[in-house]
Amino acid sequence: MASVEIDIDEEKLYMAVQDAEGTESALNEAVNAITSRANALSSGFRTGRYYDREAHELKGDTQPSYKGDVRRMGKTEVGIVYTANYAAMKDNMEHNTLLKSVR
Predict the structure, then answer these.
(1) Phi-psi region of 12 (alpha: psi -120 to 50; beta: other; left: phi over 0)
(2) pLDDT one digit per residue (tens) for the chain, 103 residues
(3) Which end of the chain, C or N, has fewer beta carbons within 10 A?
(4) pTM score, two decimals?
């Protein structure tokens, strides 16, 4: 029986995947899924309320908002999910929401 050995050039494989037709749409789907999970996990969280003396108004009691984006950085598509407001920053700090959203 004959044996076969296959050598894969990982750099060429990486470049082929980066230029593949469905890479951006697959990355968009992943970013949207993570963003949706993060917003769902944080739906019950609210920041505290306080009175802003300089603005003379009551602030706070906001719901966290997470957003995502896909951009081309050089030769690579990069997807990122981020905190879009202070409530999301606080929620992520207290509950690791972004980490829990990645499956």
Answers:
(1) alpha
(2) 678 888 888 888 887 777 778 888 899 999 999 999 999 999 999 888 888 899 898 888 889 999 999 998 887 889 999 999 989 999 999 999 999 999 7
(3) N
(4) 0.77
